[in-house]
Write a structure and sequence with these properties.
Blueprint: E1 2-7, H1 14-17, H2 20-27, E2 32-37, E3 50-51, E4 61-62, H3 64-75, E5 82-86, H4 95-101, E6 106-111, E7 116-117, H5 119-124, E8 128-130, H6 141-152, H7 162-166, E9 185-186, E10 189-190, H8 200-218
Bound molecules: adenine.
Length: about 220
């Protein structure tokens, strides 16, 4: 899978893609993430990418010309299955959406900044809009990083243990059961006996029951 990202602050995305899982996914050739600086398509000597909003009001708006020039230059090289705009005024990301996106070949993500992007880009280019939660970030870069991480980690072959991603919270619409590792007794805080029993059927049943209980207590909305 290939993911291109358009950003006005590409440096924000250096860290998230050069460490851990996403680094491994790229090293294994399972994922390619390329960040493009919108300023390369900026207007004039100062590579301007934003301007004042028509009608007045606070904040700057990303202009249509640099964005269209950038998108078109990328579209010349490949067809995109989705052009995604990260924005708080959109449906909130969840695991089924991540699963669906993980099956695509080419994704272009636009990380907005300032007050927003010229609406005409959303109307004429963007095919999907995604929020990562009901709060406002200073830009879409961190939201894009969240989306890429969520997609990257479930690509087949990225996580060593194939079953691990499938037993995540949310994969079956429920939170995960608690997990423990050594030591079995830490200053009197014990690991539940059932997990030491070696009886896999009972362990699975216990985990299911725990997952259900947790979901009911913490996220009853998921059970609806
Ligand atoms: N850009 C700013 N806030 C955002 C959010 N909550 N989700 C996605 N993109 C954003």
């Amino acid at each position: 899978m290939r993911i291109d990202i358009i950003s006005v602050v590409p440096a924000l995305l250096k860290g998230p893609f050069s460490e851990s899982i996403i680094k491994r996914a790229q090293a294994k050739g399972l994922l390619e993430v390329v960040v493009h600086d919108l300023h390369e398509f900026g207007k004039g000597k100062y590579r301007q990418v934003d301007d004042y909003p028509y009608g007045g009001g606070a904040g700057m708006v990303l202009m249509i010309e640099p964005m269209v020039a950038c998108i078109e230059s990328l579209r010349k090289k490949r067809d995109y299955d989705e052009i995604i705009f990260m924005t708080p005024d959109a449906p909130v990301l969840n695991q089924p959406m991540v699963n669906g996106l993980s099956m695509l070949n080419n994704i272009l993500i636009i990380a907005g900044h300032f007050k927003g992007i010229d609406e005409r880009i959303r109307e004429h280019y963007v095919t999907k809009e995604i929020s990562i939660g009901d709060y406002v970030l200073s830009g879409g870069e961190l939201a894009a990083a969240v989306l890429v991480d969520a997609i990257g980690r479930i690509l087949p072959g990225v996580i060593g243990d194939e079953t691990s991603a499938l037993t995540d919270s949310f994969q079956d619409g429920m939170l995960s059961a608690p997990v423990y590792t050594r030591p079995v007794d830490f200053n009197g805080w014990k690991v539940p006996d059932i997990l030491l029993s070696g009886h896999h059927k009972n362990i699975d049943a216990w985990r299911e029951e725990q997952a259900f209980r947790r979901t009911k207590e913490r996220r009853p909305d998921l059970l609806k």
